[in-house]
Amino acid sequence: MTAAQPLLALQDVSLAFRTGGGLVRRSRRLTVLDGVNLEVGAGEALGLVGESGCGKSSLAKTVLNLNRPTAGNVRYRGRDLASCTPADWRRLRRQVQYIFQDPLASLDPRMRVLDQVIEVLAVHDIGPPAERRDRALAELAAVGLDPDLAANYPHALSGGQRQRAVIARALALDPKLLICDEPVSALDVSIQAQVVNLLAELRRARGLALLFISHDLSLVRHLCERVAIMYMGRIVEQGRVEQILDRPLHPYTRALVAAIPRAEPRRGEPPEVIEGETPSLLDPPAGCRFHPRCPRAIERCAAEAPLLTAQPDGRLAACHRL
Amino acid sequence: MPSAEPLLEIRGLTVDFQGTVGRLPVVRSVDLALSPGEILGLVGESGSGKSLTCLSVMRLLPETAKAGGQILFEGRDLLGLPEEELVALRGSALAMIGQEPASALNPVRTIGRQLVEALALGGQSDRRRLLSEAEGLLRQVGMPDPAARLRAYPHQLSGGQCQRAMIAMMIARRPRLLLADEPTTALDVTVQAQILQLLRRLRRQHGMAILLVTHDLGVVAELCDRVAVMYAGRIVESGTVADVFRHPLHPYTAGLLAARPRIDCRVASLASIPGSPPRPMALPLGCAFAPRCFRAGSDCAVTEPGFALLAPDHGTACVHPLEALPA
């Protein structure tokens, strides 16, 4: 963790929606994020891991101001995003860029890839117009797309090439923070490795900070220094990647790590499997949200939500049984 | 495990699509054998032909596709079987689960009714008995609160529960072969672990053989006895999971294994395979993997290598294979 001011800081961020209201039925409150605290330092890579519906993508959208937090605040370099004017946002979006899972959905199907990179340079008024084309070509070359490929429309590129184009477009603005939401989940294994290596390389070369959202702990281990584990809208454990993945403390993290198929055939018995599935966010369990599935739960777990507290080795974990 | 008679033997299977630009070969001369009670993983990336191989066994290929070769199930060629005999085999001897259980279930019928329908095909007609059998099946697949779930509609179940319901329906008549096409891909990893455990148990209890189609080598390592790797419509390597994972012969297999990030250690850079797989309309001459292969020589671009065994039960289709385990 950096001693200086973090690049991005979330303080007690909660996000709730009202849902399902009608003539007969009363609307219900859906709490997607519940008191989340997170920091990303300049040049640092933080992995955010959890299963579907845990709130990791909602968190990313909150950072981008696509969701307004119901409580708490998101600060970028100390500045509360809620106080930003549209003009501030324009400047900010240059510094914070986003890569989604499906590159085809983030690219304009009717525009050549090269023109899309030129367009963002124009929108943000970067460099003299005459030089934008060369600059765009250089960005595309940096992600491994040569001019021939850059002249294509998105549909003519493969999945991996499309994601490279999206990365080039994001990096053309020279951002400080890149938010990646499952950036390689839609790609085949052999292509995944190419894109992951590219991200790691670009990060080193440009001193980029990364908020890397994924359900894949192995990818996070490869790319990030720190990791935060989310379950039903709350961070349950957070710390250095080796700490958390080699010796997970929280029972949910332990289950998550154990459930990942190994790269090699195991010797002996397969690991213990936790029972049940994530309950509905509309009807979250009281106390610790993991207690109905937790092998170590005691009475207190059902009554009182554990706080995220510092452990002897410096990591944070939220569990009564530690 | 070459026991006496294979349960399923695929010989020279081809699948062609009639496209506007001509014939597209998507499965090209695939040979596979599966013994009773064995779990075989069929691995490959999207478009490699693994799902079409699986669908050919059920004879559920899309109408524009044409299968050739032989698929022998207990000695009978499924591709030449009259429709009525095939229908009789589906469900009773052959069963299939897919990636999206929610779309395989009927959305407007309860789980109980769908299970009873599957069970009734076995000849039993006493509804009350069928219902109690259905409940027993749901209990067997680890469905929480099975009696209540009988009255539930698919949309009321989670993805994992839908997959359990699908599996219950498929094992209702004790098939000898289960075809599973990416059965856990849409599920969360903790739920995936539960379903893999269930499949392992069903194999142990019923001696059911499973052909598991997946892109995930981790799932193969967890569940399978043997594995076959597909690339551009062909099997490029097959063998026991231990042999293939520890001593891959084909450079593609080795590349796939090295490309996976590991949870237990960190490497400086993931080994990646350059380029991307060829499209069926533009297959290179010779070995389809040669343009991406670090071991390719000039001979690779000329002739497509045939499949050869380099060790007992471990073979590859490669002119310059990596070293086999010394016998």
Describe it.
The complex is a heterodimer of chains A (322) and B (327). By secondary structure, chain A is an alpha/beta fold. Chain A has a domain at 8-17 and 37-224: P-loop containing nucleotide triphosphate hydrolases (Rossmann fold, 3-Layer(aba) Sandwich). Helix content of chain A is 34%, strand content 22%. Chain A is built from twelve helices and twelve strands. In chain A, strands 6-7-8-3-9-10-12-11 form an eight-stranded mixed β-sheet, sandwiched between helices. In chain A, strands 2-1-4-5 form a four-stranded antiparallel β-sheet, covered by helices on one side. In chain A, a hairpin with an 8-residue loop joins strand 1 (8-19) and strand 2. In chain A, helix 4 packs parallel to helix 7 (159-171) and helix 5 (129-142) crosses helix 7 (159-171). Chain A is globular. The mean pLDDT of chain A is 91. By secondary structure, chain B is an alpha/beta fold. Chain B has one domain (8-104, 176-316): Rossmann fold (3-Layer(aba) Sandwich). Chain B is built from eleven helices and twelve strands. Chain B has an eight-stranded mixed β-sheet, with helices on both faces. A four-stranded antiparallel β-sheet of chain B has the order 2-1-4-5. In chain B, strand 7, helix 8 and strand 8 (209-214) form a beta-alpha-beta unit. Chain B is globular and about 70 Å long. The chains are: A alpha/beta (322), B alpha/beta (327). At the A-B interface, helix 8, helix 9, helix 10 and helix 11 of A face helix 8, helix 9, helix 10 and helix 11 of B.
